[in-house]
Design a protein that fits this description.
It is built from 3 helices and no strands. It has 91 residues and is mostly helical. The protein starts with 14 loop residues before the first helix and ends with a helix.
Amino acid sequence: MSDTHGPDFSGLEGGEEHAAEDTIQEVVNWYNTQIISERRAAVPDDERIEELKAGREGALADQAQLATADPEEADRIADVYAARLKELKES
């Protein structure tokens, strides 16, 4: 008999951390895309490139801190980056 519901991972820890990592990575990817696009512009805006790089570095630093974050902190970080991603995509 096959299990049509799939495996139950609800007892596993780290779900919040994984969600936060994924969301932060999406933000990092957004910054990477913008940096590449700006560098390829006919007249690259060096100030914008530096701002984008700073934003990316901040996201990478937060991503590194997830290794020691408790589930509540990881959840908070995921929420912050989900909001940031939405804001970035709308800009």
